[in-house]
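thread: overnight batch results

M.L. [08:02]
morning all. the overnight job finished for the chain we discussed friday. pasting input first so we're all looking at the same thing
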Amino acid sequence: MSNKQARPVEHGRIPLKARDVSFSWEDTPLHWVPGDPFTTHTINVLHLLLPAGERWFVHVYKQALPLIRDDRLRADVIGFIGQEAVHSQAHDGVLPHLREQGLDPTPYTAQVDWFFEKLLGDRTLPPGRARRWWLLERVALIAAIEHYTAFLGDWVLNAGELDRRGADPTMLDLLRWHGAEEVEHRSVAFDLFQHLDGGYRRRVRTWAAAFGALVFLWQRGARFFMENDPTLTNGRASFGEFHRSGRRGTLPTTGAVLRSVPRYLSRSYHPSQEGSTAQALAYLAVSPAALAAQQGGQ
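M.L. [08:03]
and the structure it wrote out:
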């Protein structure tokens, strides 16, 4: 059963555009949140998950483009594709820096690549209903994942505790530039899902799969980093430490993560209810990387 929704009216809509940013990592320490390897490595999991995940987003959305019947939505999806491609490259650029500091992420990234390229990749299916079903499943999965990337983007834009603890400014700019763009394009994935299908049962089913996979992959990545950090003895990651870090303000709170669930599963949900476009654009207007990209493109 379809649960089609009209998109909210947007005033002063700004077309999505990719910002060709670049970052230099030679001055970024291994523990870029000083004295807090757990927060550092929990957030570092983004650099392991996002390159493969966002390449997969782009691949799936290129398959979906011919099915879009709304010109504005098509333009949004094309802008989304451009932004996600740059996100993948930006996080991929952190991996050589981690290797130089004694943390080779290859054993973990190989598993992430398998997850997106094989488990969620294209399948040999006959044209027609079966092939469309698999495309719609993946479009719905991306909508669920994008709910959490927007959630994290909104969190990092407001995570003042990271500044107070002296977090590396280049890493913070990467995270906040990316987070701001996630907030900026937060409605696109859900709007595409609604346009192509919008079934509520599919939304719930794919949310459960996406949430479970994200929790599994994230805790696995955090444990990988903590156990392989050459500066730590018996480094460990745990949900208890995640909860304590949330209370300190260096990671999202457990309560905020849990409250995000019923919001997405509400029949009246729309991503425009999450975060602030004005705040996202305000950060993008002062981001060192975004400003350099803008000046370089002039």
